[in-house]
Design a protein that fits this description.
This protein is an alpha+beta fold. It has two domains: 7-170, Creatinase/prolidase N-terminal domain (Creatine Amidinohydrolase, Chain A, domain 1, 3-Layer(aba) Sandwich), CATH 3.40.350; 173-400, Alpha-Beta Complex (Creatine Amidinohydrolase). Helix content is 37%, strand content 19%. The chain has helices at 7-20, 49-55, 80-86, 91-98, 106-117, 143-154, 164-172, 176-196, 199-202, 208-221, 283-302, 309-326, 335-341; strands at 27-30, 36-38, 41-42, 63-67, 70-74, 103-104, 122-125, 132-133, 138-139, 159-162, 226-227, 232-235, 256-261, 263-265, 268-269, 272-277, 369-372, 375-378, 383-386, 389-393, 398-400. The protein has a four-stranded mixed β-sheet. Strand 18 (375-378) and strand 19 form a beta hairpin. 40% of the residues are buried.
């Protein structure tokens, strides 16, 4: 991983950010903080993707400051007991990873930053998400909000400038090391997938978690950190719940099983879905599967530089409507009726996050990586099918990065 992402990568990203952000205000960005799991234990730490993109730093609560031609990191003070359990922050490692030579203690760093903030009219940072994100029914990491509060306490007249759009624009187009990391994550996912769904193994699984366990073992032994997101192994009616992550139910031989997983390698994600049958599929199951396969092929045929995903989604929706009508599920192709059976988008950006940042109104460019994942979900028939591949936009069209994984229903 160090060979892929050396200090030049992160220094280059900081330089590009300074070029996009033409103002003279100091840039102040925070790492994520630890989140409590239970009592005195925390969830496995996951770094803020933007912070890692600019620093390569994997430690919580570190602050990055870019101020004209000066840049430095501020590291938090740790209690002695925390150092015993979690270790000290390795300053030399921070310097080597980030290419930032100036790493200051919390007291020293905030003293220097405060003197600048008191004179400034603006400060650039990343806007904090709401503490509770209602559409997803989840709480956000409080680190950004805490940083903004701390900045305002130093100078309550400061106007905050949001860098989200700048970082989204940078991260949308992948650089060579990023593409290499994503391809590696995809290769690990494909190899583990192939191994997990061998016909000799499929007939022996009795529960969804056994498939998950086989994939987890495959990811780890092939060098991945683990799963890039909570794996989905959902049979029968559970396949109609898009993000069904319990993976705890007994498998029934006549059900189709959606397997939606991706390895994480070098901080970058794969995201691949296949739908399999544990025995010979019924005629109806095969027909629905075939419709999804045709829809994916149609979507892939549309992709090339210059395509706007918002327009592309409308074309795919209409094609899917035709397939749903052929299946006897629709009489007329209306948006609400199509979305009853196909309730999600066809594509999302892929990168540091499995649902990576992106501007869906911006035309596609070479170097962008997206997923292509149509699906049909018929709750009344306890039948769900989804197929998903990861696609690199090239100068002339697309490269299907996960195309080596067969799409056979079984």
């Amino acid at each position: 991983m160090e060979e892929l992402f050396g200090p030049d990568f992160f220094a280059g990203n900081r330089t590009k950010l300074r070029q996009l952000f033409t103002g003279t205000a100091p840039i102040v960005i925070t790492a994520n903080g630890l989140l409590q799991r239970a009592a005195d234990s925390n969830f496995l730490f996951e770094q803020d993707a933007n912070f890692w993109y600019l620093t390569g730093c994997q430690s919580p609560d570190v602050t990055l400051v870019i101020d004209k031609d000066k840049e430095y990191l501020i590291v938090p003070t740790r209690e002695p007991s925390q150092e015993i359990f979690d270790g000290r922050i390795d300053i030399d490692l921070l310097q080597r990873q980030s290419g930032i030579t100036s790493v200051l203690s919390e007291v020293e760093g905030w003293k220097l930053l405060t003197s600048r903030l008191k004179k400034a009219k603006h400060v650039a940072t990343i806007a904090a998400a709401p503490s509770y994100i209602e559409p997803y029914a989840m709480y956000s990491n409080p680190a950004r909000a805490n940083l903004i509060t701390k900045i305002r306490n130093k100078n309550d007249k400061l106007e905050l400038l949001d860098l989200t759009t700048h970082l989204t624009r940078l991260r949308m187009v992948k650089q060579t090391p990023e593409i290499t990391a994503i391809k590696t994550a995809i290769d690990i996912t494909i190899a583990s997938f192939r191994d997990a769904i061998k016909p000799t193994k499929l007939t022996k699984y009795t529960h969804e978690y056994q498939i998950e366990a086989e994939l987890t073992k495959g990811f780890r032994r092939r060098g991945a950190r683990g799963h890039a997101f909570e794996p989905i192994v959902a049979g029968g009616p559970r396949a109609c719940v898009l993000h069904n992550i319990s993976n705890s139910h007994q498998l029934t031989a006549n059900e189709l099983v959606i397997i939606d997983v991706g390895a994480q390698f070098g901080h970058y994600a794969a995201d691949i879905t296949r739908t399999v049958s544990l025995e010979t599929a019924s005629r109806r199951q095969a027909a629905v599967y075939g419709a999804v396969l045709e829809c994916q092929a149609f979507a892939l045929s549309l992709l090339k530089p210059g395509v706007v995903l918002k327009d592309y989604e409308q074309q795919v929706e209409h094609f899917m409507g035709e397939k749903l009508r052929e299946l006897g599920l629709l009489k007329n192709i209306e948006h609400a009726d199509v979305r009853r059976y196909y309730p999600h988008a066809t594509s999302h950006f892929l990168g540091l996050n499995v649902h990576d940042v992106g501007d869906y109104a911006r035309p596609l460019e070479a170097g962008m990586i997206i997923t292509v994942e149509p699906g049909i979900y018929i709750a009344d028939e306890a039948l769900g099918v989804r197929l998903e591949d990861d696609v690199l936009i090239t100068e002339t069209g697309v490269e299907i990065l996960s195309g080596r994984l067969p799409k056979e229903l079984g």
